[in-house]
Design a protein that fits this description.
Elements: H1 7-41, H2 49-56, H3 62-129, H4 147-196, H5 202-231, E1 239-242, H6 243-253, E2 262-267, E3 271-274, H7 276-292, E4 299-307, E5 310-317, H8 351-361, E6 365-370, E7 376-383, E8 397-398
Parallel strand pairs: 2-4
Antiparallel strand pairs: 1-3, 2-8, 4-5, 5-7, 6-7
Length: about 425
């Protein structure tokens, strides 16, 4: 197994190694110069026994000359031992000091490497935080015009180009969808007039009815594209919105789809700061998905609550088994799991795409799990916000068809039954 060190660790090793090599060379040179100086300053030229006898014979007896030579030899031996002790002590002290300074040098190198890499950490954090909904953010790194600042400025310029490209794409989708609504509205009006006219033959009415259904599907598609383009933009409106109110309104809108489905809603207190219209559309799409792709006599469980600082909305439903490897594809635009999801009556294929776009724009996440008995459990988590003091949070409700009292309870966001 290969161990990969971080850039900071590698820079620390480089700094520490350079310091240790330099300090070791300095200690070696100091030791050699000290040895040379002691050999030069503290060592005299040796004098032979014959020369000493010849110099002192006229005045000093021979036995005293022998004694002087013995004293001189003893002094030289003591001097050599002292030089050896001094050099040994110098070497030991230098090695200990080298070890201490090496540890200090590694610590200083670690701190310096961290300060040098701090701008890169800022760039990395910004890159991780960016998405299609917050491309307006910039690094705006301050400091000297060095290589790291050049990298940050280049990244900011790239974000400018991406922001303009995504914004142009969204404007094109919104403008094209808006322009297409007018002719579709005219077509729908003409077809409705043809169906209401008594002079229209039956064949024309049948054809008009088919065309009216196709027109309605195209209108839903264009409306979905407009909503998708809006939800992918930066939020323009942020207000404290209780999720219980959002789900209550969504249940009223899908009331006609839940006649054969047992809907159980337990709405605990939870609020988010966001666009109420988009949040309501997100809840409606989740409920429509759970009701449309269910089985006769099936069930839908709806839970709201707050956990770990996140507002949670969970929608689970019975239905056909869904393979786990197909869960990610259901959030792609115009993607359906099977052929039974391609009918025009089932929608435009943008419902869950809008859900993901809305949740991402609010800084949240979407988790999808295939239930063992069939169907899906989709959990939306959005950063929670305190509920305004004047905004009442309705109590939970639970009954077939989504009507009736219920038990909210904080733990209701994690159970189906």
């Amino acid at each position: 197994m290969t161990v990969r060190l971080s850039v900071r660790a590698r820079l620390t090793l480089v700094y520490g190694s350079l310091f240790l090599v330099t300090a070791s060379a300095l200690v070696a040179v100091t030791y050699l110069l000290t040895v040379r100086a002691m050999e030069t300053r503290l060592t005299s030229a040796p004098i032979s026994r014959a020369a000493t006898t010849q110099l002192v014979r006229p005045a000093v007896p021979l036995d005293r000359i022998e004694g002087l030579l013995a004293v001189k030899a003893t002094a030289e031996r003591q001097l050599d031992r002292q030089k050896h002790d001094v050099l040994e002590q110098l070497l030991q002290s230098s090695l200990v000091l080298l070890l201490v300074l090496g540890v200090v040098g590694v610590g200083i190198g670690y701190v310096v490497a961290g300060r040098l890499l701090r701008p890169l950490h800022t760039v990395t954090a910004t890159a991780r935080r960016l998405s299609e909904s917050n491309l307006h953010e910039r690094i705006a790194l301050a400091g000297p015009q060095d290589e790291i600042k050049d990298l940050a400025d280049t990244f900011d310029r790239m974000l400018d180009r991406l922001h303009r490209a995504f914004d142009s794409q969204r404007r094109f989708v919104a403008n094209a969808s808006h322009e297409l609504r007018t002719p579709l509205t005219i077509n729908r009006t003409v077809l409705e007039v043809a169906l209401a006219s008594r002079r229209s033959p039956p064949e024309t009415k049948v054809l008009a009815d088919v065309l009216l259904g196709n027109t309605a599907r195209h209108e839903r598609l264009i409306e979905g594209l407009l909503l998708l383009a809006r939800s992918e933009r930066e939020l323009q409106t942020r207000a404290g919105t209780p999720l219980a109110d959002v789900v209550t309104s969504a249940l009223d809108q899908v009331d006609g789809l839940s006649d054969e489905i047992d809907v159980e809603a337990r709405l605990g207190p939870a609020a988010v700061a966001g666009d109420p219209v988009l949040l309501e559309r997100c809840a409606v799409n989740l409920l429509e998905n759970a009701l449309k792709y269910n089985v006769p006599g099936g069930r839908v469980w709806i839970r709201t609550g707050e956990r770990d600082g996140m507002a949670v909305l969970r929608v689970a439903n019975t239905g056909r088994p869904v393979p786990s490897y197909e869960l990610d594809t259901i959030f792609e635009p115009f993607r359906r799991l099977r052929a039974d999801r391609v009918g025009s009556a089932d929608g435009a294929g943008l419902g869950l795409s809008i859900v993901r776009a809305v949740v991402t724009a609010h800084g949240g996440t979407v988790e999808t799990v295939a239930r063992e008995d069939g169907g899906l459990a989709i959990t939306v988590r959005i950063p929670a916000a305190p509920v305004d003091a004047g905004v009442p949070v309705p109590s939970g409700r639970s009954a077939p068809g989504g009507r009736g009292p219920g038990d909210p309870g904080p733990g209701s966001v994690v159970t189906d039954e």
